[in-house]
Amino acid sequence: MNTPSSKRSRFKAILKAAVQRRSASMVGLIFVVICGALGAMQVISNEALVLGITGVVAFEFQKQLDKGVPLLQLTCLIATLQWLVGPILSYNYPIAVARYTMYVPQQLYFGFALPATAFFVAVMLATGASVHQQSMLAGVNRRQFFSIGVILNIVANSAAILAARSGESGLAFFFHLISQLRYIGALYFLFSLSPLRLILAAISCTQLFMSSLGTGMFHDLILWLAIMFCYWFAQKKWPFLFKLTILMLASFALFSIQAVKAEYRYNLKRGTPQSLLALAYEYVIPTGRAWDNDVMSTTISRLNQGWIVSAVMSNVPENEAFAEGETVKDAVLASALPRFIWSEKKTAGGRENFRRFTGLEISEATSMGISPLGEAYANFDVDGGILFMILFGAVFATIYYGVLRYCISHPTFFFWIPLIFYQAMKAETELLIVLNQLFKGAIVAFAGHYLTHLHFKSRRIASVDLD
Fold first, then answer.
1. Per DSSP, what are the bridge partners of residue 131?
2. H or E element at residue 130
3. Distance CA 46, CA 405 (A)
4. Where is 131: in which H helix or E strand?
5. Which of 100, 120, 166, 201 has the maximum number of C-beta atoms within 10 A of its C-beta?
6. Which long-range contacts (CB under 8 A, 24 or more apart) does 228-231 make?
7. 110: left (phi over 0), alpha (psi -120 to 50) or beta
8. CA separation, residue 196 to residues 151, 235, 383, 401, 412 (Å)
9. pLDDT for residue 334
10. Closest Cα to residue 103, out of 119, 116, 91, 89?
């Protein structure tokens, strides 16, 4: 007999099964760890090791892509591309701009970066969790998703106006976080019952499109669209060849944007803006400029975060002593304490740490971080840096696992997850920004979800068949 109590127990059991510990196969994890150990010893070609680690991470990413949002896999893929693939290409391809070359020998860089990245990836995927999205959202009443999406967009647009008027005050970041609710609203639209859900989700992202096209800065656009695509794509199972085709097209699109970015920005500054699509087409046709050595060199440089890490390794401890945990402590305190309590708290942007640890200069208008990998070395040297990356990966994955466990009792919180981890997914972001987003993003996400569903009860449909 199916009593309401038994149905609830059954539903909760399915939700628990939807959250699965360990986000990769054991064989893949062991292979990545072995590659990292071999990289530390520098006894095998770095090219082969980088190819092996990238292959495993890419495989795990596509495997999870149509099951649920592969946040951990995507984070590991970004880190692998920027800390390993970009650097190996830079060592083997002539870089046109001397500033973006690798500052230390290949053996020295990969003797640290390979084990640090490999162990970071392994512990992330081993201690974290993956989710089966269809099971997580099964039986949730979606009739009010449209209304929730509308309200979140109104709140987000109001916060964006307040953020613009807050200047450099401590409230600016808070309002900026709330303004990102438009993307959570886009997810509610995407999963609503409205026949216009795709159009409404696109409208929610209008400001993101306009900002990216108006400034030539596409990083936020690419990351948010990738996150939303992952949510949409996981609504059904897809054949492997289709997933592979999608990933190849996405890679080609990213390459196209990176190739034309410099000229697109130059045209904006001259006051002669050009269609991004038209410019990309001109570049990527067989006779286009994308295949020229100078453009290819610039594209590789944009992928490569390792040049900054190598600059840190060249400058520390030769010209700057190891920080011995100073920047980590400052990041933890700055993310947890408001400015009115700690008036001398560090300011996000990365300029201070970049200048200090690389010995290079950047303008006040430029935000450039040395990344968690760079901070790991700058604070703790090679061995300590590797241990730090293991701990960092374990903390990241454990927090994500805890959030997924919370979704068992609150399934619609699944839509709010990106608000917490958005900055943490970026391989080039300094630790202060990562922790700031994790801590304050979690406050906004949990409070926003609670207040939203305090009024809009997204009840489960009792009669749904969960088999």
1. 19
2. strand 129-131
3. 38
4. strand 129-131
5. 120
6. 228/183, 228/186, 228/187, 228/190, 228/201, 230/65, 230/69, 230/70, 230/71, 230/74, 231/69, 231/133, 231/187, 231/190, 231/191, 231/415
7. alpha
8. 17, 17, 54, 33, 20
9. 80
10. 91
Q: Which residues contact 268 (CB under 8 A, 6 or more apart)?
A: 214, 215, 216
Kindly write down the DSSP assignment for every residue of 6-59, as one continuous string: HHHHHHHHHHHHHEEE-SS-HHHHHHHHHHHHHHHHT-S-HHHHHHHHHHHHHH
Q: What is the DSSP string of 161-212?
A: HHHHHSTTSTHHHHHHHHHTHHHHHHHHHHTSS-TTHHHHHHHHTHHHHHHH
DSSP 313-378: HHHTTTTS---TTHHHHHHHHHHHS-TTT-TTPPPTTSHHHHHHHH-----TT-----HHHHHHHH
Write down the pLDDT at residue 3: 61
| Contact in structure between 182 and 419 (CB atoms under 8 Å) | no
- Going from the C-alpha of 315 to that of each of 76, 252, 357, the distances in angstroms are 27, 35, 6
Task: Assign 97 to helix, strand or coil.
Answer: coil
- Which residues in the chain land under pLDDT 70? 1-18, 20, 167-170, 337-350, 365, 457-467
DSSP 264-322: HHHHHHHT----HHHHHHHHHSTTSGGGSHHHHHHHHHHH--HHHHHHHHHHTTTTS--
From CA 245, how far away is CA 240, in angstroms rounded? 9
Q: How far is CA 198 from CA 189, 353, 381, in A?
A: 7, 42, 49
Query: Are 183 and 229 within 8 A, CB to CB?
Result: no
The per-residue pLDDT for 463 is 35
Tokens of 50: 């980088």
Tokens read off for 5: 């109590």
Helix (H) or strand (E) holding 129: strand 129-131
For residue 423, what pLDDT is reported? 86
- The reported pLDDT for the residue numbered 339 is 56
Rounded to whole angstroms, how far apart are CA atoms 129 and 23?
5
Q: Residue 239: how many CB atoms within 10 A of its CB?
A: 9
Under DSSP, the state recorded for 414 is G
Q: CB burial class (10 A; 0-12, 13-18, 19+) of residue 59?
A: middle
